[in-house]
Amino acid sequence: xxxxxxxxxxxxxxxxxxxxxxxxxxxxxxxxxxxxxxxxxxxxxxxxxxxxxxxxxxxxxxxxxxxxxxxxxxxxxxxxxxxxxxxxxxxxxxxxxxxxxxxxxxxxxxxxxxxxxxxxxxxxxxxxxxxxxxxxxxxxxxxxxxxxxxxxxxxxxxxxxxxxxxxxxxxxxxxxxxxxxxxxxxxxxxxxxxxxxxxxxxxxxxxxxxxxxxxxxxxxxxxxxxxxxxxxxxxxxxxxxxxxxxxxxxxxxxxxxxxxxxxxxxxxxxxxxxxxxxxxxxxxxxxxxxxxxxxxxxxxxxxxxxxxxxxxxxxxxxxxxxxxxxxxxxxxxxxxxxxxxxxxxxxxxxxxxxxxxxxxx
Amino acid sequence: xxxxxxxxxxxxxxxxxxxxxxxxxxxxxxxxxxxxxxxxxxxxxxxxxxxxxxxxxxxxxxxxxxxxxxxxxxxxxxxxxxxxxxxxxxxxxxxxxxxxxxxxxxxxxxxxxxxxxxxxxxxxxxxxxxxxxxxxxxxxxxxxxxxxxxxxxxxxxxxxxxxxxxxxxxxxxxxxxxxxxxxxxxxxxxxxxxxxxxxxxxxxxxxxxxxxxxxxxxxxxxxxxxxxxxxxxxxxxxxxxxxxxxxxxxxxxxxxxxxxxxxxxxxxxxxxxxxxxxxxxxxxxxxxxxxxxxxxxxxxxxxxxxxxxxxxxxxx
Lengths: 361, 316
Prior knowledge:
The complex is a heterodimer of chains A (361) and B (316).
Chain A: H1 7-17, E1 23-29, H2 37-45, E2 48-54, H3 57-66, E3 73-74, H4 78-86, H5 106-112, E4 122-135, H6 136-143, H7 153-156, H8 158-164, E5 169-171, H9 175-185, H10 195-208, E6 214-215, H11 219-226, E7 231-235, H12 236-249, E8 255-258, E9 264-272, H13 280-290, H14 293-303, H15 318-321, H16 330-334, E10 336-337, H17 344-359
Parallel strand pairs in A: 1-2, 1-3, 5-6, 5-7, 9-10
Antiparallel strand pairs in A: 4-7, 4-8, 4-9
Helix pairs in contact in A: 9-10, 10-17, 11-12
Chain B: H1 2-7, H2 9-20, H3 25-52, E1 67-70, E2 73-76, H4 81-88, H5 90-123, H6 126-137, H7 144-155, H8 160-167, H9 181-204, H10 209-217, H11 222-233, H12 235-250, H13 254-259, H14 267-277, H15 281-315
Antiparallel strand pairs in B: 1-2
């Protein structure tokens, strides 16, 4: 997260070095891998890894669409992946080089195939939900014991969010995740592509806009942990990282994550190989390596995101597998929705509404 | 020495060789900056201009081709859709307006802070002057990004300023300074101040002291002397400093992104949204082209101010 702006020039270096030793250029989300994964990969294969990070799908997408990014493995979220496949950005995987595919959870892979038919271009890296992270003590202090901490009302109902505004509310800077959540709260179809529905969702967000301190997709991790803000619409694992950081700092801040009872967005982050990857062979090795049961379990144990690897489940900490915020209950699963690929016109409507919401005008 | 070089055989040969291609020494000297402008300004500009007339689509690269070969030759597809968006949607106009407003006030603040500093440095004795100039330039040794991040640490809710004020009992609740326009102004004025001070200093240091003495001999108060002599004579420096601050601030992206709130709507942000969020490279290009046009006027003013300065010099 901290080095996202520095990562860009580093990449230019990475591409020039690639020609000499066997290297692999991986571009992944910030705070999204176990500390020893890369070292173990280099140890096992002798391939050096340049590991760069980003904190938004948009930044990754711009690089992919421009081409010649120099990356071998990237990890776009499912709906972005789908559009990028349409644009011809990714190469088909060579399944013969991926024996560890047998470890994957067939149900989840079938879910991901909705975005990438036949899972031809991608493999699930991690998956999660977009829900609410909150500071347990602060919320109770401001709202009392009957605070609706299991509901989107915490954010979308002004009578609650206006009180919480005092200690800070943040939301992801991701319109395609927030607007459907607002629509869902209003009882509309979160997968609707109707302009009128988006406008209703935007209207709801406008009513609570004065209560939102900022829109950002990574800063809330440290702010939640430090107690600088107390409610965040965020990605499940990121909120759990905030929780872990607060525990480490032992600063009296207790963070919890909830999949609101009204439902939440379920997304998959997918490993894929760009068509112009300099080293597709090493990229396959890396993807296969990550699909190893122990390696995936290590990553989940570190980043607290659910994985799509059935074989790794016995190796994942009990504390994580039993957490309904990470692995939702069957009941909660029914209310999860997946994201859609919108057309150019709809994208424009969404961005326009989002800018209006953010600027409060 | 120079004559020896010019008369030497290798030099003569080179000159003769180049002359065969119609190149003189003078032509070469001009060719370098011309080539530079051509490669690093004109060609990128033409590429951006070209993209602004395309249409966005899901492809790689994500826009339509302007000229497409067909069976019977070429088809040319110019689209003015991007420019149409800019005109129809009030959002863009608002963003241009807000960028110009922030740039205007930042420049004003930088001038109000920078002028006395430049004046003081110019009036200091030689040894002090060098040290003070050094202090102005020194921040450049640290990455610009790190310095902006440092401001986050100073301004945030549990940052240095709030902690100090809280511990002194001056305030009870932390002041909200981060994610506000205030933080953006602080960041911009801080970052661009040297660009204001240096041209002002260069101008003020040349100020003829005898004019000031004459003024006071004739009974003018210091304030009168400043208003009628120092200020008018430093006008080219003021203009140069203001343009050096104003022009880059209009397109500033990093400082408002890091320090500003979501309601800080500058054109750099809109450009980012168009490019990344809408994947609409043509509209992003159109936004950039219009921004360039908006800035041409101040750039021409800067040019004129510099010409004026040069004429002053040759006059003396």
